[in-house]
Amino acid sequence: MLSVLIETLNDEEGLARTLASLIGGAVEGVVRDVVVCDTGSTDQTHRVADHAGCHYVTGGISVGIRQAKGDWLLLLEPGARLSDGWIDEVVAHMARHTMPARFSRARGSRAPFLARVFSGNRALAEGLVISKRQATALSKSARSAEAIARGLATKRLDA
Fold this sequence. Notes:
By secondary structure, the chain is an alpha/beta fold. The protein contains eight helices and seven strands, in the order βααβαβαβαβαβααβ. Helix 1 (12-21) packs parallel to helix 3 (45-51) and helix 4 packs antiparallel against helix 7.
């Protein structure tokens, strides 16, 4: 069903938080595999991925996309925490749509207005649900998960 890809560089703590939020999806059988795409970490990222049972790859997001087993991919930043209801929203989206989707941010987790205006907009801040076919095509010209997510027209999920 769904492969989760997390591109990381020296963020073992953020990776651990994100992996913990995926447990429900794995238990329900929605998350087929998790691929940690390391871009040169020197911390314990490899150990965190290994202990969690993830596939660990080096060489960037395109390598991870090729190794992912699911027909749909969920691209996340390390440190991302998925809210309640994400599983049902993603399953419904995969069944009805072919276009990519992003999660809605919880109202309490939004940065203050001025911080949003003056900080750089991260394309993966709300995650990205995308078909493996489309991600594969985009990864030929994009060097990172952020580059794949930037500029895509997406549907907004209610989770």
